[in-house]
Amino acid sequence: MFDITRRQALTRSAALIATPALITAPALILPRSAHAAPEFSYKFGTNVPATHPLNVRAVEASERILKETGGQVQINVFPNNQLGNDSDMLSQLRAGGLEFFTISGVNVLSQLVPISSMWGLGFAWANDDAVHKALDGELGKFLRGQFPKVGLLAMDTIWSSGFRQITNSVKPINTPDDLKGMKMRVPVSPLWTSLFKSLGAAPTSISFAETYSSLQTKVVDGQENPLAIISIAKLYEVQKFCSMTNHMWDGWWCMTNQKVWDRIPEKARPIIAKHLNQAALDMRADGAKLNSSLRAELATKGLTFNDPKLDAFRSTLVKSGFYAEWRQKYGEEAWALLEKYTGKLG
């Protein structure tokens, strides 16, 4: 067996990025000796383009797992919704047809476990360090404890997507008033819809695969995503303004099916968990580096940036009853854990 380098992973990923989202293309499979087929082979599904750091780090973790298990366990990474959209992959995960899946707690997972969306509360977090401290600590432990109730198991460490920013083709967003009536694409999620309605916008739930075309044809005026996604998906081609609102933090749980996990060889489980958790930590560092460089890069590609003052946005959410509504939905125990890290909300 020979090692796959980071450059090789990126090159292979770039070739896959043009693959239509719902067509199954070759996975990012690690090369191996022709005489040493792995005894156990598992699928790892993701919803981000193949060149995204999540997929690069997942491939690196897969290589380490293959090596440390003596070639017995191979995890093949399928990026860019190759195995279906989030709902499809979550269904496959629950049925045991997909072994690993990186899924946002705010998106379709929240339809199954509503409290999983808690980390995405609007304007709740001061910075990435505050989120990581919470999710590596008591809040994360509490949230992970909810998933076995529906037959799922989450790895300990969150894969960070980071803070999301608002782009649109109309005007800079400096105050909540600038969002009034603006047609905003949001993911299929009650929390996202609630947030933008509370800020006066007109949110429309559209899958990520249709976001670029919806912006291009003016079905919607704007969208919101981390800078890495704005760059990789080339959303700057169909947007003019980027407002650094940091309005929501998002990330991915690396999840498996509890019954599937129990069938994985006992000696392999801690090896798999160790390397998947390390990959999540490595990706956090990737995200920090990307966010420090992407603003300047995206500006050269035509995006106009502005830095709004965020107090007015939180004040609007308080007045609209946004925090009170979600406090009631999440419950007092979870809310108290959240505010231990965020400070008082609402």
Textual characterization of the structure:
This protein is of the alpha/beta class. It folds into two domains: 6-162 and 250-295, 3-Layer(aba) Sandwich (D-Maltodextrin-Binding Protein, domain 2), CATH 3.40.190; 165-248 and 302-342, D-Maltodextrin-Binding Protein, domain 2 (3-Layer(aba) Sandwich), CATH 3.40.190. 42% of the residues lie in helices and 18% in strands. The chain has 14 helices and ten strands. The chain has helices spanning 6-16, 53-68, 86-95, 109-112, 128-135, 138-144, 190-198, 211-216, 227-232, 258-263, 269-300, 311-320, 322-330, 332-342, and strands spanning 40-45, 73-78, 100-103, 152-154, 159-168, 183-186, 202-205, 222-225, 241-257, 304-306. Strands 1, 2, 3, 4, 5, 8, 9 and 10 form an eight-stranded mixed beta sheet that branches. The longest helix is centred in the last third of the chain and has 32 residues, at 269-300. The chain is globular. The N and C termini lie far apart (56 Å). Mean pLDDT is 90; it is low at 1-25 and 31-35.
